[in-house]
């Protein structure tokens, strides 16, 4: 009977990850790599791309960083015109809620959007998401932001109405 218990304990340890000490500390840095998709405010089109970020924790919960995205789309392009390549470079600030392996966060970013299929302009976005630690240094994350653009500086309501959702899913490491 004792042997069966040892075998079951060994199998459980092999298949279930150990509880990770997954809190951020002041001075930690993180690097993320993810995929993203975006759609218009009416969910009437979609495009995809990749993103990467580097962040630094000023405190245990406040992170500042820079994020780069590159997107390719062929939505709403004329037939046989090929796709369009767009990018955005943003600085961000996020506040993390320490819940062990789960690290929900909220924040904002501001940056510049540029490329073939967009009017080059400044943007800002509220953002939020969650990080789930697989071990003490590696996590998966999901994030959503709503980018609004300043190309219509006369009317902030139009800028917000013409915004877009950006969804990201990826992996990260802290060091």
Rg:
20 Å
User: Widest sheet: strand order?
Assistant: 1-2-3-4-5-6-7-8
How many H/I helical runs? 2
Question: Strand percentage, roughly?
Answer: over 45%
Task: Let me know the average pLDDT.
Answer: 82
Q: Main beta sheet: strand number and arrangement?
A: 8 strands, antiparallel, barrel
The residue ranges in which pLDDT falls below 50 over 5 or more consecutive positions are: 8-18
Which secondary-structure class do the elements indicate? mainly beta
Q: Tell me, briefly, the overall form.
A: elongated
Number of domains: 1
Question: What is the chain-wise order of helices and strands?
Answer: HEEEEEEEHE
Written overview of the protein:
This protein has helices at 2-15, 156-161, and strands spanning 29-40, 47-57, 62-73, 84-96, 102-115, 121-133, 138-149, 164-174. It is built from 2 helices and 8 strands; from the N terminus they run H-E-E-E-E-E-E-E-H-E. Strand 4 (84-96) and strand 5 (102-115) form a beta hairpin. The protein is elongated and about 50 Å long. The chain has one domain (2-174): Porin (Beta Barrel). An 8-stranded antiparallel β-barrel has the order 1-2-3-4-5-6-7-8.
Write the layout of secondary structure elements.
Elements: H1 2-15, E1 29-40, E2 47-57, E3 62-73, E4 84-96, E5 102-115, E6 121-133, E7 138-149, H2 156-161, E8 164-174
Antiparallel strand pairs: 1-2, 1-8, 2-3, 3-4, 4-5, 5-6, 6-7, 7-8
């Amino acid at each position: 009977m004792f042997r069966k218990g040892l075998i079951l304990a060994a199998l459980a340890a092999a298949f279930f990850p150990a509880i990770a000490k997954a809190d951020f500390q002041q001075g930690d840095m993180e690097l993320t790599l993810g995929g993203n998709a975006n759609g218009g405010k009416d969910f009437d089109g979609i495009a995809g791309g990749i993103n990467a970020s580097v962040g630094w924790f000023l405190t245990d919960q406040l992170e500042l960083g820079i994020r780069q995205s590159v997107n390719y789309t062929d939505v709403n392009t004329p037939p046989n015109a090929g796709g369009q390549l767009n990018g955005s470079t943003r600085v961000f600030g996020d506040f993390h809620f320490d819940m062990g392996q789960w690290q929900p966060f909220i924040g904002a970013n501001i940056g510049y959007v540029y490329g073939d299929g967009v009017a080059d302009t400044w943007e800002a976005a509220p953002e939020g998401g969650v990080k789930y630690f697989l071990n003490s240094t590696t996590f998966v994350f999901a994030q959503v932001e709503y980018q609004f653009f300043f190309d219509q500086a006369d009317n902030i309501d139009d800028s917000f109405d013409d915004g877009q959702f950006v969804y990201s899913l990826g992996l990260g490491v802290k060091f």
